[in-house]
Design goal:
With 409 residues, this protein is mainly alpha-helical. It has 2 domains: 91 residues; 284 residues, no CATH class. The chain has 18 helices and no strands. Helix 6 runs antiparallel to helix 16, helix 6 packs across helix 17 and helix 8 crosses helix 16. The radius of gyration is 22 Å and the shape is globular. Belongs to the chromate ion transporter (CHR) (TC 2.A.51) family. InterPro entries: Chr_Tranpt_l_chain, Chromate_transpt. This is Chromate efflux transporter.
Length: 409
């Protein structure tokens, strides 16, 4: 009788990939460590998770991880955080998913709360620190421009999607609410790309009609330009603002910018300068980039506002995995839903472009030396395009701060 054992089939080997036995505290600490090392944005964060939990420890088969990542990229929310929640559920059920997600986001949350607290207590206007932040703001514009280009490359892959993005940008400039713009973009693309051009045209016509009816009172881009200040926000309003951002982060954290800005800067709860400072600070922290919502919430409503907006921003990232754990992969197979979401994502790209233009105009109006700010922008943009590294964003922000402190003080 032969003593040679035949190897198990490849499919059986894949099925053996399972998380190790961990206690709830051990699981939390494991993902807390991931959160402490989560520098460099989503690409670096996902690569870290893949290397340790897929390649080295085999918590999940590689092909299943790839499919799961594809699902997370279709859904709104920070992909790396959603992956942590999903893998936590795989290890210890839904409570494990909750602990994994909290562990991953906690380091960035604590650091951003500390920075926001310091920001509101340090002298900034007319100081060296203020000049450094002016430089950072010019660098942040470059970072967002590069991010919009990268997002657009992945989203705008056919003429209909380009048309949706351009139409959304035009509607935003006219002050039309994104509640009209984005569903219309999604529906028009879903219908048009399946050959139902007449229905797509009807959807667009209805959207234009609704826009005309709500022209005067819609909360669109024009509202931000008025500078009117509303009463201090209720905690529920900040939670809702964060939730809208969390539900509309298609293609990356930067897609939440126009919605969060509209609900805070547009109501006079903070300035564009403060908003850009928050984006800059988020770029140097080990956290999903949507952590800038914590800063925005602090400036708008203190500690309670920061926690409320953070909860709203991250709630979808928890909910999709916790509630739909067994059904997420079905999203990949749902073609009509994918088409609708693709149209919405294209509309979001158009809204971001308008927001970047508004932010650049505001920054240019505030700087004491437009040439220096333009130089910071140009250098930062060149680095972002030429240097493919997770350190690129922190480096350009540091360069902007240094040049601003020297030349803009």
């Amino acid at each position: 009788m032969s003593s040679i054992e035949h190897p198990a089939p490849a499919s059986a080997a894949l099925d053996e990939a399972q998380p190790p036995e961990l206690s709830y505290p051990a699981l939390f600490l494991r993902f807390l460590r991931f959160g402490m090392m989560a520098f460099g944005g989503p690409v670096a964060q996902i690569a870290m998770i893949r290397r340790e939990l897929v390649d080295e420890e085999r918590w999940i088969p590689s092909d299943r991880f790839n499919k799961l990542l594809a699902v997370m990229q279709v859904l709104p929310g920070p992909e790396a955080h959603e992956l942590c929640v999903h893998l936590g559920i795989r290890a210890k059920g839904r409570l494990g998913g909750l602990l994994a997600g909290l562990g991953f986001m906690l380091p960035g949350l604590v650091l951003m709360l500390a920075l926001a607290w310091a920001y509101t207590r340090l002298p900034i206007q007319g100081t060296l620190l203020g000049a450094a932040f002016l430089g950072i703001q010019a660098a942040v514009i470059a970072v967002i421009v590069r991010a919009v280009h990268r997002i657009g490359e992945h989203i705008l892959f056919d003429p209909w999607l380009w048309a949706a993005a351009i139409a959304a940008a035009a509607a935003s400039l006219a002050g039309v609410s994104f509640w009209i713009v984005l569903p219309a973009a999604g529906a028009a693309y879903a219908l048009g790309s399946t050959g139902r051009y007449a229905l797509a045209a009807v959807v667009v016509a209805l959207a234009v009609g609704l826009a005309a009816l709500t022209w005067a009172g819609s909360p669109g881009g024009a509202e931000i330009m008025t500078g009117t200040k509303e009463p201090a926000p209720a905690i529920a309003a900040l939670f809702w603002a964060g939730l809208k951002g969390g539900l509309l982060t298609f293609g990356g954290a930067y897609t939440a910018i126009p919605f969060i800005r509209n609900d805070t800067v547009g109501r006079g709860w903070m300035t564009d300068a403060q908003f850009l400072d928050g984006l800059g600070l988020s770029g140097i922290l080990p956290a999903p980039l949507v952590i800038f919502a914590t800063f925005v919430g602090w400036i708008s409503g203190g500690l309670a506002g920061a926690l409320a907006m953070t909860a709203g921003m991250f709630l979808p990232a928890f909910a999709f995995s916790l509630l739909l754990y067994d059904r997420l992969e079905a999203v990949v197979e749902h073609k009509r839903l994918q088409l609708f979401l693709a149209g919405v994502a294209a509309g979001v790209v158009g809204l971001i472009v308008v927001t970047v233009v508004d932010l650049a105009r505001t920054t240019g109006a505030r700087t004491p030396n437009l040439i220096v700010s333009a130089l910071i922008f140009a250098v930062s943009l060149a680095i972002m395009y030429r240097w493919k590294s997770k350190l690129a964003t922190p480096v350009v922000l540091a360069i902007g701060a240094a040049i601003g402190a020297i030349a803009l003080s």
